[in-house]
């Protein structure tokens, strides 16, 4: 259909890597996430994900190509689902939502208000390719702009997720965003996949990520307690290592063996597999 705007920045283009990962996952005989809407959305955009060799390579096993993207999305969905089950009056923020159909996977109660925030160009595409339920709101803004939160209710508990976003924020932008979020809401949770310094180096230097490398602005961090120092309202609640994911039982033997080797060590797990961090405030 080809509705993709022609001039996306590398940070904006990165949404097709995660969307493509979830779409390819849904085509597997036994998907990890099973989000068929991701595949529909990808087809509607007409975007050629062959621009991401990490997805299109025939040398890598299809399950290995999508594991990190699909399983970290699943962990973040679970964090949101558990929160809205406890707080049916919650506000959900999906920061750097891209074209993700998380709201349809989580299927929150109608009493929840759900906000997808991304650059205006991306939100405009979202509105063409995804359904817009009455309690879904798109905010087209740069997340580092201090004013986009002005229209979001500030008197309800909030669960805030960011899938694939942090690498594209400067350190200053990330820290001020965390502090603005924790001061805006009375209480809540923040969950995101983290990027270690090694992961940032990888995205910048491995040719498979060339299409998005120019957008990477964050130095990464290795200690999950760092955000508690940057935003003192946050308390680390959980560090989830994908090297310990139950879904690994369905992966090729080589990946299972490598994960079994790395899983006992938090340092190796952080460095070599995806990690989801969950904080309370
Ligand atoms: C890797 S993509 C992930 C998209 C989506 N969360 C997903 O999982 O498919 C990163 C997203 O963050 C968005 N993004 C990066 N920096 C941003 C900023 N400063 N303000 C708003 N959105 C931003 C990009 O436009 C892109 O959609």
Overall description:
- InterPro entries: Ppm1/Ppm2/Tcmp (IPR007213), SAM-dependent_MTases_sf (IPR029063), TcmP-like (IPR016874).
- There is one protein chain.
- This protein has 281 residues and is α/β, with parallel strands linked by helices.
- The chain has a single domain (68-280), classed as Vaccinia Virus protein VP39 (Rossmann fold).
- It has 12 helices and 7 strands.
- It has a 7-stranded mixed β-sheet, with helices on both faces.
- β4, α7 (171-184) and β5 form a beta-alpha-beta unit.
- The radius of gyration is 18 Å and the shape is globular.
- The model has no long low-confidence stretch (mean pLDDT 95).
State the name of the first-level CATH class: Alpha Beta
Average pLDDT across residues? Answer: 95
Radius of gyration: 18 Å
Bound molecules: S-adenosylmethionine
Low-confidence stretches: none
Amount of helix? 40-55%
Per CATH, the architecture is 3-Layer(aba) Sandwich
Distance between the termini: 43 Å
Order of helices and strands: HHHHEHEHEEHEHHHEHHE
Biggest β-sheet strands, sense, barrel: 7 strands, mixed
Q: Provide the β-strand percentage band.
A: 5-15%
How would you describe the shape? globular
Total helical segments: 12
**Fourth-level CATH superfamily:** Vaccinia Virus protein VP39
The domain tally reads 1
Q: Class by helix and strand content?
A: alpha/beta
CATH topology: the name is Rossmann fold
**How is the largest sheet built, in terms of strand order?**
3-2-1-4-5-7-6
Number of beta strands? 7
Summarize the helices and strands and which ones pair or pack.
Elements: H1 10-26, H2 36-45, H3 53-56, H4 62-86, E1 91-95, H5 102-106, E2 113-118, H6 120-129, E3 136-140, E4 158-162, H7 171-184, E5 188-193, H8 197-205, H9 210-213, H10 226-230, E6 235-241, H11 253-262, H12 266-272, E7 275-280
Parallel strand pairs: 1-2, 1-4, 2-3, 4-5
Antiparallel strand pairs: 5-7, 6-7
Bound molecules: S-adenosylmethionine.
């Amino acid at each position: 259909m080809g509705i993709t705007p022609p001039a996306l920045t590398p940070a904006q283009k990165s949404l097709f890597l995660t969307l493509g990962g979830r779409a390819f996952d849904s085509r597997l005989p036994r998907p990890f996430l099973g989000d068929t809407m991701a595949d529909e959305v990808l087809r509607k955009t007409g975007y050629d994900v062959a621009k991401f060799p990490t997805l299109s390579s025939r040398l890598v096993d299809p399950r290995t190509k999508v594991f990190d993207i699909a399983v970290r999305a699943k962990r973040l969905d679970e964090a949101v689902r558990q929160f809205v089950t406890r707080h049916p009056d919650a506000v959900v923020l999906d920061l750097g939502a891209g074209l993700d159909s998380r709201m349809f996977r989580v299927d929150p109660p109608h009493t929840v208000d759900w906000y997808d925030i991304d650059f205006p160009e991306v939100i405009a595409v979202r509105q063409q390719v995804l359904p817009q339920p009455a309690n879904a709101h798109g905010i087209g803004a740069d997340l580092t702009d201090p004013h986009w939160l002005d229209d979001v209710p500030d008197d309800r508990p909030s669960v805030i997720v960011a899938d694939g976003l942090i690498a594209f924020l400067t350190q200053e932008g990330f820290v001020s965003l965390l502090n603005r979020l924790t001061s805006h809401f009375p209480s809540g949770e923040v969950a995101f996949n983290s990027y270690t310094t090694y992961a940032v180096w990888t995205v910048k230097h491995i040719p498979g990520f060339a299409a998005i490398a120019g957008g990477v602005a964050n130095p990464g961090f290795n200690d999950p307690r760092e955000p508690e120092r940057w935003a003192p309202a946050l308390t680390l609640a959980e560090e989830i290592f994908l090297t310990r994911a139950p879904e690994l039982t369905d992966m090729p033997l080589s990946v299972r063996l490598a994960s079994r080797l790395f899983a006992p060590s938090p340092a190796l797990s952080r460095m070599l597999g995806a990690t989801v961090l969950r904080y309370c405030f």
